[in-house]
Amino acid sequence: MAYTYKYPRPEVTGDCIVITKEENPKILLIQRGDNPYKGCWAFPGGFMEMDETTEQCAIRELKEETGLELSGPRQIGAYSKVDRDPRGRTITVAYLFMVDEPLPVVGLDDAANAEWWPLSALPELAFDHKDILADALKLL
Description:
Helix content is 17%, strand content 33%. By secondary structure, the protein is α+β, with helices and mostly antiparallel strands. The chain has one domain: Nucleoside Triphosphate Pyrophosphohydrolase (Alpha-Beta Complex), CATH 3.90.79. A 4-stranded mixed beta sheet has the order 4-1-6-5. The chain has a 3-stranded antiparallel beta sheet with strand order 3-2-7, with no helix packed on it. The radius of gyration is 15 Å and the shape is globular. It starts with 10 loop residues before the first strand and ends with a helix.
């Protein structure tokens, strides 16, 4: 299916916030293997394909970047700050997944690494992921 538009269009991404239900919760982060923010930590996520929803995109990207297959996320919200991604105009829809405990993960695709981090000791996050995390924690 080809698309031709007179005006520029933003890119759309799906991001995954995966948190454990433990007494001391952990969150799944990937270490970015590519620019922008190469080497920094971020949520698993990526660009939406033309034939999928933002939820399907988030689920696919989670599997592609960490090997983790989850379903039934809760939408946190849409994030559209004009400068949130230095590559260009990008809007993301973020989804919250809850798991009982850390599951096996590995850095795949464009993720150099994937690790579970204690919520109490997070590294600095890429993009606007700190803001997204704050909204996710409000839902808990």
